[in-house]
Design a protein that fits this description.
The chain has 218 residues and is mainly β. It is built from 1 helix and 13 strands. A hairpin with a 6-residue loop joins strand 8 and strand 9.
Length: 218
Amino acid sequence: MTASPGAGQQAPPMDLRYVGVATYGVPPTFCTSSLLIRFAINTHQRITHSNYPVEFDLLFDTNRDGTPDYIGFTSEVGTFASSGQNAFFVGPPAGPFRAFFFTEHPTNSANTIVTICGEQIGVTSPGQQINVDAYVYDNYFTGNELSSIDGMSTVIGAPRYVDSFYLSPLGFGTAPGGGSTSLRIFTTGSTATTTESGILLMFSYGPSGNEARAIKVR
């Protein structure tokens, strides 16, 4: 086993830790499918900036035949080092790729959230099961794949588990500084064979190592 390279070695270590998904109903004037889908990605290491040196790729197999039907990836808007903005571009494998939303990433954070409309991956109604693979690439020094989580499967708009934050209008909650708040987890009764194992909580501006927590339902 080779130890992870250190700073200044032009080989950034970046290991995927968790990937979660949440779907929200929106007006058709916002997404023609009325489905807003957000993928939460957490890594073991913090990323300085969403543009470089890391790129996140999601491969969507929407008909579940083993071949990706759509690809999404994070990328700087414009040419290299031109804007400082990052967005999530989606399209069929041969392109073209379009971004509807900017990437959500506080600088120097292990948390990244990418957002799409359902129609960007051919999902036009809730209840469709899709498979998803996640990859991380070094997009600055080598172009090499750094980490992956393969074989994920979820039903859009019909998760196996939800929490009390998800049931709130905005899907998030707050806790007082130095305090606590209660969180309830519910099973939806879904019988689909998915890879969901619980709830992923993302903490904005949390301390290193505690920016996300996966609660596994047993």
